[in-house]
Amino acid sequence: MSQAPETSRRPVVTPMRVVIAVCLLAPFVALMWVGSYAKTDPVLIGIPFFYWYQMLWVPVSALLTVTAYALWRRDQRARAAAKGGAQR
Prior knowledge:
It comes from Streptomyces cathayae. This is DUF3311 domain-containing protein. Keywords: Membrane, Transmembrane, Transmembrane helix. The chain is built from 2 helices and no strands. By secondary structure, the chain is mainly alpha-helical. The protein has a domain of 55 residues. α1 runs antiparallel to α2.
């Protein structure tokens, strides 16, 4: 029985993947660290800091998620191109 040797596919850490991870982790860390925003001042349009800080993270999180997705797609295309170019 001859079988092709299995190659271990270890995850590759690239700078782009680090940026993707930071984009996805930043909102999580910023909102889980409640002590950094558990205060009322400064007030913005009559809204205490505690509330507007959290609401500010909604669009910021969306933009960071879209950025991470776009970078992930670019990384996948680059890996597919490199894999296809190496096989030729």
